[in-house]
Amino acid sequence: MAAAASQVVNKRYPELNVQVEPGAALVNMEKIRNDKADIGWSMTTVMADAQKGEGQFAGKATDKGLFVANFYPNVWQLVVPANSDIKSVKDLKGQPVALPARGNTSLAAGWEYLLKVNGMTLNDLGAKSYGPVSSNAEAVKNRQAMAAGWFTVVPASFVLDLGSAMPLRVLPVSDEEFAALRKLNSGFVRYTIKAGTYKDQGVTDAVQTFQSPTVLIASSNTSPEVIYKITKAIVEGRDEFGNVTSEMKGVKASDMAESLGMPYHPGAEKYYREAGLLKQ
Q1: Among 48, 44, 79, 81, which residue's Cα sits nearest to residue 62?
Q2: What is the pLDDT of residues 201-220, one digit of tens each?
Q3: What is the DSSP string of 137-184?
Q4: Strands 97-100, 214-219: pairing kind
Q5: In what order do the strands lie in the sheet containing 214-219?
Q6: In the 8-state DSSP scheme, what is residue 264?
Q7: H/E element, 130
Q8: How many CA atoms lie within 13 A of 231 on its CB side?
Q9: Closest Cα to residue 31, out of 211, 222, 213, 226?
């Protein structure tokens, strides 16, 4: 997605010369906080934590990361073998679990928060293995772990891959759990995985879960004129992102302008107002 975004911007405004560097939601916010990046991908949950100085940003609150555009939902998907007795997060107590690497948003904003609202911590789980999503899936395949959970797009490649080896169950998130999650972090949004999405993986019904939208953010130190051009380029060139992820196919300009309560960068706000996407 980052490469596609840079191409979209550079094609329309070659003088900006947008370059891509490796990063992730937490890392990118940290770079912006430390004035080591002008723009970057992040998530609404990371923005909320950074602004309040909570979670991974405890003791280092920052308001430098500002909203530019909303791209697609990062959906929490926690899967277990369908033939297991695990039907809720609490059932994972003492069970071996495959987890994202430390520092990954899926661990900090996914696992740790979801365990917390259920009165648990990582210490309540059984044997834990940390690694990338591919190794997590392999661990469940090999019965070295009984669960794997990540924030990612729908359908998730790790669920499709794992479901080719065994029928799965996607653990739902109850209304009570979601309400508690929202108290921990205002960046969470309710999401329903549609019925039939994973029918070939053994999941026939719709599943209630939650998501943290993938957003483009920019430093408050970055020129409003530059961010205006970037915002204009990616919103008006949004159809090109559909070739990168199905989540972006048919996305509306109004969807990209939705900050979910996060503060806008002045350059982005200027474009959205001129385009009639924000109330004057």
Answers
A1: 48
A2: 999 999 999 999 999 999 99
A3: HHHHHTTS-S-EEEEE-SS-HHHHHHHTTS-EEEPP--HHHHHHHHHH
A4: unpaired
A5: 39-43, 214-219, 65-72
A6: B
A7: strand 128-131
A8: 33
A9: 222
> In this predicted model, what pLDDT tens digit does every residue of 109-131 receive, in sequence order?
999 999 999 999 999 999 999 99
Instruction: Report phi then psi at 237, rounded to 5.
Output: -105, 20
DSSP-based three-state secondary structure for 17: coil
Residue 280: predicted pLDDT: 59
Alpha-carbon distance of 207 to 104, in angstroms, equals 24
Query: Residue 88 and residue 169: Cα distance in Å, rounded?
Result: 10
Provide the token pair at 159: 């669920």
Q: What are the structure tokens assigned to 235, written together?
A: 């919103």
Residue 255 and residue 234 in contact, taking contact as beta carbons nearer than 8 Å: no
**Cα–Cα dist 131/119, whole Å:** 25
What structural domains does the chain harbor? 2-72+215-274 (3.40.190.10), 75-211 (3.40.190.10)
Phi-psi region of 59 (alpha: psi -120 to 50; beta: other; left: phi over 0): left
Q: How far apart are CA 189 and CA 197, in angstroms?
A: 19
**Pairing verdict, β 168-170 and 189-193:** unpaired
**Low-confidence residues in the chain, pLDDT < 70:** 280
Contact of 45 with 185, CB cutoff 8 Å: yes
How far apart (Å, rounded) are the C-alpha atoms in residues 6 and 17?
Answer: 8
C-alpha radius of gyration, the chain, whole number? 19
Amino acid at 214: T
Question: Which residues is 76 bridged to in the sheet?
Answer: 151
CA angle 175, 113, 179 (to 5 degrees): 25
Burial class (CB in 10 A: 0-12, 13-18, 19+), 171: buried
